[in-house]
Amino acid sequence: VYLGDQANMPYGNYDSVGKDGYLRELILKDATFLLGRRRFQRSETEPRLNKPPVKAIVIACNTATAAGLEDIQQLLHEYQIAIPVIGVVAAGSRGVLQVTGSDREPATVAVLATVGTCSTGAYPRWIGRTHGLAGRRVPQVVQFGSARMAGVIEGSPGFTESIADRTAMDVKSLVEQYRENTDLQPQPIRTVVLGCTHFPLAQAEINDAFQQLRTTVDAEGKKPYASLIAAELTFVDPAEWTARELFHALAQGRLRNPESGATGNDMFFLSVPNPASPGIELDDSGGLTSDYKYGREAGHWDLEDTRNEPLDPHALPPATLRLIQDKLPAVWQRLQQASAAP
After folding, report:
1. Position 263 confidence tier, pLDDT thresholds 50, 70, 90
2. 224 and 218 in contact (C-beta within 8 Å)?
3. Residue 157 pLDDT more than 70?
4. Which DSSP symbol is given to 40?
5. Given 17, 37, 214, 334, which residue has the most CB atoms within 10 angstroms?
6. CA 85, CA 87: separation in Å to the nearest integer?
7. What's the pLDDT band for 260 if we cut at 50, 70, 90?
8. Could you tell me the residue ranges of all domains in the chain?
9. Is 214 exposed, middle or buried (0-12, 13-18, 19+ CB in 10 A)?
10. Is residue 88 a contact partner of residue 238, using CB atoms and an 8 Å limit?
11. What is the value of pTM for the model shown?
12. Res. 94 pLDDT band, cuts 50 70 90
């Protein structure tokens, strides 16, 4: 079961407008949907109760992991639901441990993420924790929160710059902040964490931006960034390490399907605005207006201004559809199969 909270995204911007409490509420609502049977069908006003509850939860969003992992764990504890919860931040941090374990010289880990993820300090904290527990030297971590890269990669309206231009600007901002921070040792960046699920789709452009910056020559004929960026970078995609952790958690809990048994069916759900909700404000495309989306307050659990419906792949924005078809062909195939199922 996949849930994409499209109506309320991007999650990474709630913290910047002081709505981190409302974001945590959204994340708990996401978890409640996954755990329950209630779902809506397109064009129907009353919910159905035929969605299978999940046997594990993967929080496949860095911001949601950083802001809501502990809340979901507490929810499961209170309701005595014994299922694993895997977050991408902890898994990605353990991935950093694996790829930096053999480093003999001090080096820096760079984290490119959203504003919301960076504001929590989750990656520096988890990277330090995983290295400390393993008895390894804790690497220096520098991070930068991009408010626009995810939207540019997805091709969302209002994000007109190219992926190459946006990554160049954000990478330069990250390295400039690193260079100007006198509290940090000037060690070369060797590992880059792609701390937003969109960013691996732009890994080539991000790598190019680092290498172009590394070879930049200033007016004095010097290369001001060369010593801060290694000639070869190692990229950590937290999604890969999350999948590994999920596999082990299912195996340890004896929750895996028998290899000889039939595989289950995929179910994809997407949140959409509920036009019948009192006071809702929609833009010309039918989405929540920015003022309404980021103006909501926590504490209104009975307010259902969005609802989770089966995802119609052909109803996705054209840019998003092309992104999935071009970059995620296996996902596109499974989406088509799921949408064709009765």
Report:
1. low
2. yes
3. yes
4. -
5. 214
6. 7
7. low
8. 2-88+243-340, 90-236
9. buried
10. yes
11. 0.88
12. very high
Strand pairing of 189-195 and 108-114? parallel
Half-sphere exposure of residue 302, counting CA atoms within 13 Å on the CB side? 1
Question: Among this protein's residues, is 118 annotated catalytic?
Answer: no
Class of domain 90-236: alpha beta
- For 309, phi then psi, to 5°, come to -125, 160
Pick the CATH number of 2-88+243-340 from 3.40.50, 3.40.1000, 1.10.12, 1.10.3470: 3.40.50
At residue 103, the pLDDT reads 62
Distance, CA of 212 to CA of 226 (rounded, Å): 10
The answer to whether the Cα torsion of 332, 202, 118, 297 is positive or negative is: negative
Give the Cβ contact number of residue 294 at 10 Å: 16
Token pair of 90 as six digits: 């902890």
Closest CA to 15 of 92, 125, 167, 118: 118
Mean pLDDT score of the chain, rounded to an integer?
A: 92
Active site residue 61: yes
- The residue annotated as part of the active site, out of 7, 88, 193, 196, is 196
pLDDT at 15 over 80: yes
Measured CA angle at 122 (ends 244, 71), to 5 deg: 80
Q: Which of 58, 61, 171, 229 is catalytic?
A: 61
> Amino acid identity, residue 110?
A
pLDDT reading at 247 higher than 90: yes
